[in-house]
Design a protein that fits this description.
alpha/beta; 10 strands; 232 residues; Rossmann fold
Length: 232
C-alpha cells in the first residue's frame, strides 16, 4: 500500500483526464484537470450538464478511475490501487450522497444507515446507538422501520445523508442533493448541509441550487471537462 502523505489538502488533482469509449470513438469527459480543495471547507462544484461534475465526484470517491493524471484524497493516492483497497478507503473516509439516493430497497431506514458500520464490523451496540443518532439528526426517527419505497424522495435523500455520515467520514460528496426535490424537502437538505459545515466537515457538493451555493467557502466551475474557475 502506498504511504499516506499528510497535506493541508483534502483533495488534489494534477492533469486529471477521463475518456470513455463510445462505439469506435472516444469521449473526453475530463480534460487536464488540476485543482486543490482544502480540509474543513464547504466547496460547491458548478457547471452545465455534461461538464464532468458527476465523473469528477466518482473519481474522487474511487468509484471510477481516471484515464490519466494524479489524484490524492485525504493524503492518499488513488492511482493504481486495488478495488478492495478503494472500497475500504471509501467506506472509512468518504460519505457519498447520490442524486438517485442508491438506498438498498430490501433494507429498512435503520438497516440502510447501519450498513457502512457493519461493513467495518463495528460493535453492535455502537452501530445501534450511532444509527439512532443519525436518523434523529435528519428528522426521521418515526421512519426507522420503513423501507425506501414507503418514503418520499426527500425522506430517501435524508436517509442517504445519514448513511453517508455513518462512519464519521472526513469527506462528504453530494451529487445534486436537492435536484429532484420540492422546495420544502430541499430546505431540509440545506439544513443538513449547514450542520455539516458548522461541524467542520469537508463537503464537496455538485449543485445548481443557489441556496447551497451561499454556503460555499469555494466555488469550482467546470466547463466542457475543464476547470473554468475556482473562486474563494
Amino acid at each position: 500500500m502506498v504511504e499516506k502523505e499528510e497535506t493541508g489538502w483534502m483533495i488534489s488533482t494534477k492533469s486529471l483526464s477521463k475518456t470513455y469509449p463510445v462505439g469506435t470513438s472516444k469521449v473526453e469527459v475530463l480534460k487536464d484537470l488540476t485543482l486543490s480543495i482544502p480540509k474543513a471547507k464547504f466547496v460547491v462544484l458548478c457547471g452545465p450538464s455534461g461538464s464532468g461534475k458527476t465523473t469528477l465526484l466518482n473519481i474522487i470517491s474511487g468509484i471510477d478511475r481516471p484515464s490519466n493524471g494524479e489524484i490524492m484524497v485525504a493524503g492518499q493516492t488513488l492511482i493504481g490501487q486495488r478495488e478492495d483497497f478503494l472500497s475500504d478507503f471509501r467506506c472509512s473516509h468518504i460519505g457519498f450522497v447520490f442524486q438517485s439516493y442508491n438506498l438498498v430497497s430490501t433494507l429498512t431506514v435503520a438497516e440502510n444507515v447501519a450498513f457502512p458500520m457493519e461493513w467495518q464490523r463495528k460493535p453492535s451496540q455502537e452501530i445501534k446507538a450511532r444509527t439512532l443518532e443519525l436518523i434523529k439528526t435528519v428528522g426521521l426517527a418515526h421512519r426507522e422501520t420503513h423501507f425506501p419505497a414507503q418514503l418520499s424522495g426527500g425522506e430517501q435523500q435524508r436517509v442517504a445523508f445519514a448513511r453517508a455520515l455513518a462512519n464519521d467520514p472526513e469527506l462528504i460528496l453530494a451529487d445534486e442533493p436537492t435536484g429532484n426535490l420540492d422546495v420544502k424537502n430541499a430546505e431540509k437538505i440545506l439544513q443538513v448541509l449547514s450542520l455539516l459545515k458548522e461541524n467542520g466537515k469537508t463537503v464537496l457538493v455538485s449543485t445548481h441550487d443557489l441556496q447551497i451555493r451561499e454556503l460555499a467557502d469555494q466555488v469550482i466551475t467546470l466547463k466542457d471537462g475543464r476547470l473554468a474557475s475556482s473562486d474563494e
